[in-house]
Structure formats: structure tokens, C-alpha cells
Description:
By secondary structure, the protein is mainly α. It is about 65% helix and about 0% strand.
Amino acid sequence: MTATASPVRKVTRPRADAQRNRERIVSAAREMFVEHGPHVPLDEIARRAGVGNATVYRHFPDRDALVREVVCSVMDRTSEAAETALAASGDAFAALERFVHTAGDERISALCPMISSAFDENHPDLEAARRRVEQIVGEIMGRARAAGRLRPDVGVGDVMVAVAQLSRPPAGAACLSVDGFVHRHLQLFLDGLRAPARSVLPGATVTMEDLRQS
């Protein structure tokens, strides 16, 4: 059984070569945003993507549109990784592990803070991508909990906070220099999610609504 379908962003499909250029731009932008932050010059992104500046602006009229597409694409890929893992094995905890490690690879912690008051954080594309992540992770956690493999006192918000914190380099460390440790620490966290729980967690289960209101 696969995860329940969720809203998909509606995007007009361009020609194959234009689609490849768009994907190269988004991939290059993600890498450079992680390395240098959201204010990296767009011509540097174009150079890394192997396209001209005009091609970047043809696909993304301004920086906000490009940042938004990068964040949405990261959330989409993490959701797809979880859905694929669940469909392949039916093992909900394994699907949760796949989501967590993919989110670490995608550097969600470096990208999500880019959504600020500087642009519309309630844009329909962002809302759809957020809902999809929340829905698939919530469903997977529910299945893992029902199977007795996930401790009962954790929520989607707990997972998202932990992934963001554990995939973020410590102060003074270069982002890429901690790559060798990220998955080690994420796996330690995942082992702490397994049932039966070995301790009582302080505070209450964290939901995505808690995070939105904080």
C-alpha cells in the first residue's frame, strides 16, 4: 500500500531542453545557497549551471522565485524519497529513516531559513510542498507507531526540528566539512525514536502547527 496522494504543484511543462536547463539552474542554486547563503550572485549560479544569465531570468524573473523553487524542490524530493521507500518495502520505519537521511542530504536546515518576510512565505507552491511533507511524514509515523516500532510520544514537528538541527554545521565549522558526521548523528536520533522508549521525554509532542506558531 502506498501513501495517500497529496496536492501536487501545478507547473506548465516546458520543452525538454528548457526543462533540463531549469533543473540545472535549480540544482546549481541549491548548492550555492547551501555554500554561500541566499544572496549569492545570480550570474554565479548561471555559471555553475552552465547557462547564460538570460536563461536564468527566463525561468525565474527574480531571486525570490528561484529561492522558492529551490526550497519547494527540496521538500518534494524528500517527500518522494519517503513515498518510494514505503511503496518498495511497506516498512514505515524504514521509510521514515529514508526521509530523515534524504532531508539531511538536501540540507533542509540551510534552505528553510531562506523563507522569510522578504517574500511571500504563503505562496501556493510553498504551501503545497509543506502540506505534502507534513502529510507523508505524518502518515508514515502513524503506520510505524501502529506497528509498534515508533515511540508514541513524538510528532512530525519533533522529527523536523531534529533533522534541521542535526544537519546544520556547528558555529565556526564549514557547512561541507561536517558531511561525514551528519548521517551518523541522524542515525543516532532515529535509534532514539524506536519503540519501546527508554525514557520519558520532557514537554509535549511537537506538531507542525506548534512550529508555525513559534
